[in-house]
């Protein structure tokens, strides 16, 4: 669906000012039942913002949003944020809620909250200011004008008082630190209006004193994943300057004609450019400052394609504390201190996945015949530099250190991949272990982490072998057959075999993990472990085309649905003493619904599992968003608040807070003295009138 800039969206509202959600509230009056009758309770258990979990979840929400609905046959142009549950409840939930929640949360973190270090201090931004002999703020402003010009976006419409980050912290308090400015910025004929905070982000800052000022790969990597997926979406085609209509990219030179500009639209193209600028600076900082030399016990630079782990491990450590300098308006890092030098598998796969996605955008290797011309146009020297020619030829021996987006990303990508292989893969067992202390490999295999490592490796193999990634990561294509790609496929296959032979139980469920030398876990299986196994086995099927892995994924899915689904309350229990939905669990469940609909559902005459009927999966998907994400009341549910993208418009003269009358409040009315950002919280799930 082509997204429009705020001023167009604001003036195209439907005539009706108040629309019911179209779904009955769990516990409110329905079918004559009293509101006091036993109902589902989904209270907030923890509202601290976990960057890694949120950004992981919202990445899965994105992929399970518009791309999923469109792939199942929806015409995206029929969606309207102010027409809930049309054309169907699933279409609206996927195409509007899942997708737009995902997008807005990313902007909250990377442009509004201040949860990290300011882009003005990014390595590339500093270098540009020095080269142009300009103050840093002036150089960054000039850069934003250049990016706007490249997509035909009016300079005067660039959002005011942004806080663009180049790297993000591990967490923080998502309560706004001051009153959100909901005053009228622009009025519309139907009584709706654009509030100031939609165009001026100054009132949307979080409290810097409550931020976890720690750099964790899974956190800044999770943000990187969101940025890479959206940048790929926004910059994957061209548009006409006069009509703003998207046009297919046929050659990398299409944008050099008078009426064609980069980006799928002017507004989306601008966001894609900002995201790419942030990614570029992030990668340069990671490569040059955040790798840890286990021998020297100090932070150092990555070696990239020249890195050989047999000479000593140099990897991304779990926690690097930041001492800030400069003003709160544009903080920089004064000092970096390693607080936890371990390599954790979660950190590594959540860096591998986005780096692979971005590699697919920036890839300029001549032998890759699957390149998107629109991406080539973005990285042809204007507005982003071309790759160093030595780094895109077929000879790795002549590779050199370079600062273009392709080269810095490739350096990070290859070093992370080699460390996952050397530090986390137990060759004898054929499985990934959760941690390595820089000297010794651990012996714990976690089913969830291993499963998602397989999915990250699947995307890596596609990217390094020159096949489409992003929304097209399921498409068939001929790959280059690189040594790295072949090794990734071997790792995927061996881990899949390990799941099938060592983790699957007689009841079809998988164990939560495995201790090498001892055997599989004997405790009660969790929902999270099942989701990780399904994602991993499906990744193995997609990567290798081996039907045995699909069959195994279907078996685990059936067992999961049979064991965890509550038929009365229409929720999955989590398999723990207390049902608790974290962002990690929510993201994984969203992802599993997607792969079940796309790859595991009954599509053969002899496939009759009720849980894998497409209608059953869709109903579970809708129930999950309705009951767990949105929640049964305004005070409950994972999604803390919502923006106008999901229908909660601002109406002059009306009481604000929840104008669309669903169970997700507007940002300024979401709790605390000033409101809460539109992000995910951890919730408990209690059934009946009391606790489970």
SSE blueprint:
Blueprint: H1 6-11, E1 44-46, E2 49-50, H2 51-63, H3 66-71, H4 89-112, E3 116-118, H5 123-132, H6 136-151, E4 165-168, E5 171-172, E6 184-187, E7 192-195, E8 214-215, H7 217-234, E9 238-240, E10 246-247, E11 260-262, H8 266-289, E12 291-293, E13 298-300, E14 314-315, E15 319-325, E16 332-340, E17 343-344, H9 345-362, H10 373-378, H11 405-424, E18 425-426, E19 431-432, E20 435-436, E21 444-446, H12 447-464, H13 483-503, E22 513-515, E23 519-520, H14 527-544, H15 547-564, E24 565-566, E25 571-572, E26 580-581, H16 583-600, H17 614-629, E27 650-651, E28 682-684
Antiparallel strand pairs: 1-28, 2-5, 3-4, 6-7, 7-27, 8-15, 9-10, 9-11, 12-13, 12-14, 15-16, 17-20, 18-19, 21-22, 22-23, 24-25, 26-28
Helix pairs in contact: 2-4, 2-7, 2-16, 4-7, 4-17, 5-6, 6-8, 7-8, 7-9, 8-11, 9-11, 9-12, 12-13, 12-14, 13-14, 14-15, 14-16, 16-17
């Amino acid at each position: 669906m082509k997204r429009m800039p705020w001023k167009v969206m604001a003036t195209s509202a439907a005539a009706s000012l108040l629309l019911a959600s179209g779904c009955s509230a769990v516990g409110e009056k329905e079918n004559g039942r009293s509101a006091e009758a036993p109902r589902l309770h989904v209270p907030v258990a923890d509202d601290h913002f976990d960057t890694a979990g949120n950004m992981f979840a919202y990445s899965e929400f994105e992929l399970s949003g518009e791309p999923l609905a469109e792939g199942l046959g929806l015409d995206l142009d029929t969606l309207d944020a102010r027409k809930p549950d049309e054309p169907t409840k699933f279409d609206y939930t996927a195409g509007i809620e899942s997708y737009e929640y995902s997008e807005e949360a990313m902007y909250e973190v990377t442009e509004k909250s201040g949860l990290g270090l300011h882009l003005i201090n990014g390595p590339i931004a500093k270098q540009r200011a020095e080269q142009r002999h300009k103050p840093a703020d002036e150089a960054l402003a000039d850069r934003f004008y250049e990016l706007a010009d490249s997509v035909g976006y009016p300079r005067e419409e660039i959002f005011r008082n942004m806080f663009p980050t180049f790297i993000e912290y591990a967490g923080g308090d998502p309560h706004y630190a001051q009153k959100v400015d909901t005053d009228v910025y622009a009025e519309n004929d139907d009584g709706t209006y654009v509030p100031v905070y939609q165009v001026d982000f100054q009132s949307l800052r979080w409290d810097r004193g409550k931020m976890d000022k720690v750099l964790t790969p899974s956190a800044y990597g999770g943000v990187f994943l969101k940025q890479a997926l959206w940048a790929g979406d926004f910059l994957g085609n061209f548009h006409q300057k006069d009509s703003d209509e998207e046009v297919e990219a046929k050659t990398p030179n299409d944008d050099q004609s008078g009426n064609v500009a980069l980006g799928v639209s002017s507004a989306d193209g601008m966001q894609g450019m900002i995201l790419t600028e942030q990614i570029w600076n992030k990668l340069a900082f990671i490569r040059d400052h955040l790798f840890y030399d286990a021998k020297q016990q100090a932070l150092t630079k990555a070696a990239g394609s020249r890195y050989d782990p047999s000479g000593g491990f140099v990897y991304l450590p779990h926690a690097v504390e930041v001492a800030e300098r400069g003003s709160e308006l544009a903080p920089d890092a004064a000092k970096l201190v390693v607080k936890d030098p371990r390599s954790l598998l979660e950190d590594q796969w959540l860096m591998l996945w986005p780096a692979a996605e971005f590699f697919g955008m920036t890839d300029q290797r001549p032998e890759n015949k699957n390149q998107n011309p629109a991406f080539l146009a973005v990285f042809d020297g204007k507005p982003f530099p071309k790759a160093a020619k030595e780094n895109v030829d077929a000879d790795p021996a002549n590779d050199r250190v370079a600062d273009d987006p392709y080269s810095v990303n490739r350096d990070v990508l290859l070093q992370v991949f080699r460390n996952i292989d050397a530090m986390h893969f137990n060759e004898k067992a054929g499985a990934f272990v959760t941690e390595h202390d820089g000297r010794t490999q651990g012996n714990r295999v976690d089913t969830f982490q291993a499963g998602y490592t397989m999915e990250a490796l699947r995307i890596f193999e596609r990217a390094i072998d020159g096949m489409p990634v992003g929304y097209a990561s399921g498409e068939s294509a001929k790959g280059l057959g690189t040594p790295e790609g072949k090794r990734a496929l071997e790792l995927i296959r061996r881990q899949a075999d390990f799941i099938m032979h060592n983790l699957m139980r007689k009841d079809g469920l998988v164990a939560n993990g495995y201790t090498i030398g001892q055997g599989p876990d004997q405790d009660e299986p969790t929902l999270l472990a099942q989701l990780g196994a399904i994602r991993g086995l499906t990744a193995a099927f997609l990567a290798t085309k081996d039907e045995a892995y699909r069959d195994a994924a279907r078996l685990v899915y059936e067992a999961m649905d049979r064991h965890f689904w509550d038929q009365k309350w229409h929720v999955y229990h989590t398999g723990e003493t207390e049902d608790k939905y974290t962002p990690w669990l929510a993201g994984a469940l969203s992802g599993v619904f997607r792969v079940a609909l796309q790859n595991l559902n009954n599509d053969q005459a002899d496939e009759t599992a009720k849980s894998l009927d497409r209608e059953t999966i869709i109903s579970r998907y809708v129930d999950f968003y309705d009951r767990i994400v949105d929640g049964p009341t305004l005070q409950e549910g994972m999604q803390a608040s919502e923006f106008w993208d999901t229908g909660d418009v601002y109406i002059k003269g009306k009481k604000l807070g929840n104008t669309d009358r669903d169970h997700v409040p507007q940002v300024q009315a979401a709790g605390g003295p000033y409101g809460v950002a539109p992000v995910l919280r951890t919730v408990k799930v209690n059934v009946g009138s009391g606790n489970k």
